[in-house]
């Protein structure tokens, strides 16, 4: 029986032959460019990025460290070059509503060209307008218009004088207006002489002065009208002159950027603004005061500042569609912001201080977000969903909500959003969002699943070797030779928990490579060999095995009672897994069973004191079903059996010890002792079939460690489910012991096989009469139960 179930040392590990590789070191390899074992995920990704329908964004789901982000980025970088390069975006001044800057879309590269063109225009137009208005022809025409004004004014003054003389007054003009003086005998009278006149004459002058004043007021009105007409004529002349100058520039710019209504309107508004503000172009700049006076000083308006162009999104150097990925998940970095500058203690801003975010830069292409980081900032996640729903980017300043400062801000015109968003996260985040967020289901309709394992074949091994080469090149680490690569493949198979698989958890693989490379550097070697991979793995365990070591010491000094020799009735070594943070290890636990007359069935002591998890409790209930079918077909099951994990005080869960508990009960019922040098793990169903469990490698290595410490004598071993053989990837110490017949590993498929290995006594099967063979385990157990049933019948 033992030979039939015993495994060869060759079955205990995936052993990789270095000769499979056609290279000596990883330096000879190319960088990894494709995924490993992700055919289904790659197919979904390729489909998802090609769906050009609202809501078809992607969620890349898979365990951490399997290369989801890297592969997605590499794939998008490749396909994006064949896509159309998105337009540039600029913001310009809104002459109709200065608080709402206008967004203009231009072909890639034209945004920068337009900005440079307008910068040149601003410089040129200032010079040209001054030159135009400083030439002789303009001055002559201006003087001619003014002389016409003076001539008309003089005629009005002459007419006014003639009217005034009839009433004994003479009028004169001065800087501050027109004044009148009384006349006597053809001469004007000074104030002193006027006072000497008799009262009657004074009275006559005063009465006539009222009439003269009316004429003066009328004349002043006419003079002002002439002044106004003259000023208007000069202004029109200036505008016509300026228009000729400006038109040349504006028409040239229009010819460079055709068929753009928004840009054309902006240029027309610029032209009107220049004509309206010609005087500011002609004004001399204010001299700087030394030292400058404290506080803000009034500045002359500079209308040309509103002609500048804010190059908001520049795709002039972009080849194809953009692919954006960043680690800064602040609101302003994603959605853009409006900057302010300190101006003598106050905040000052304008449309040129609008700054783009990641979404603006990725517009027309792709952006990759890490789901955990994005969701951690609720404002960003909500704003992203809003942008995807409305398909436009609204740039707004979200000031700190705890701040009491109220700032007058701009409201830029929104930019249309055309983007494919890829969220990268694990299954837990995906299911949570799916259950709690209605928008998520509508906006992320494509799920891309990445696996953490791939098929164990040479093609995938070479891809992992290419990944190792890429990693070593990026981190400036020494290359691995093919023996080291083979060791990494064996470790990858153990991570995958399957001899037929390789793990694609690149984070874990890269950590081992990095640590092995460090040991290599410390020894001043230039190439990482297989020995350094082994050393890295050993040292890694050594650094974090504090609790494992303490547990072993407690067993060695018999604080924890674990027998590894002799035989005991109703007592067996079960195998458990203990997890401490990122490290888990296996250790045996003594399981005992007592059976006696009663009708309580199987009592799970752990459950009675609330130390049993639900899965473990289920496993114990299954035992009752097995015993009932096996032994209670013709007699009532009058049994009370108590099961206990001895010296285990922190609870137990899982059903991997259910077969072990059943062996202890069968031993107690039959009275046949169990070999204590063999430990057991495995789940069982009601039909007595052994089922696979997890952590098989750690469990075997944990029991082996204790047996090795006490001395291997060839009797020690472990019984495991036959389904777990493919999960075996044991360390070299166990392999050597099995090879030298010092330790044994048995794989079974039924309870009967297991009890025979543990006791050396046949399990026994019912014959045609329904009887078990005399002396078999099942016969002895049945006889004991029949006895319990008789005792129970007599006492009822």
| Global morphology | elongated
Residue runs with pLDDT of under 50 for 5 or more positions: 400-406
The termini sit apart by 43 Å
Oligomer status? single chain
Q: Order of strands across the biggest sheet?
A: 23-24-22-21-26-29-30
Radius of gyration over alpha carbons?
48 Å
Largest sheet: 7 strands, mixed
Instruction: Please state roughly what percent of the residues sit in beta strands, choosing from under 5%, 5-15%, 15-25%, 25-35%, 35-45% or over 45%.
Output: 15-25%
Total strand segments: 30
Structural class comes to: alpha/beta
Q: Give the rounded overall mean pLDDT.
A: 84
- Could you estimate the helical fraction of the residues in percent? 40-55%
Give the count of helical stretches: 27
List the helices and strands and how they pair.
Layout: H1 2-5, H2 39-50, E1 58-61, H3 68-80, E2 88-92, E3 102-106, H4 110-133, H5 136-166, E4 169-174, E5 177-184, E6 187-188, H6 191-196, H7 199-256, H8 261-276, H9 278-282, E7 310-313, E8 323-325, H10 331-335, E9 337-338, E10 341-343, E11 346-348, E12 354-355, H11 358-362, E13 366-370, H12 371-376, H13 378-390, E14 392-393, E15 415-416, E16 420-425, H14 427-436, H15 438-443, E17 446-449, E18 453-455, H16 458-475, H17 482-496, E19 501-503, H18 506-522, H19 530-543, H20 546-556, E20 567-568, E21 571-580, E22 583-597, E23 601-604, H21 605-608, H22 614-631, E24 639-645, H23 658-670, E25 674-675, E26 678-680, E27 683-684, E28 690-691, H24 696-710, E29 717-721, H25 732-739, E30 744-748, H26 751-759, H27 777-794
Parallel strand pairs: 1-16, 1-17, 8-13, 13-16, 21-26, 23-24, 26-29, 29-30
Antiparallel strand pairs: 2-3, 2-7, 4-5, 5-6, 9-12, 10-11, 14-15, 18-19, 20-25, 21-22, 22-24, 27-28
Helix pairs in contact: 4-7, 5-7, 7-8, 16-18, 17-19, 18-19, 22-23, 23-26, 23-27
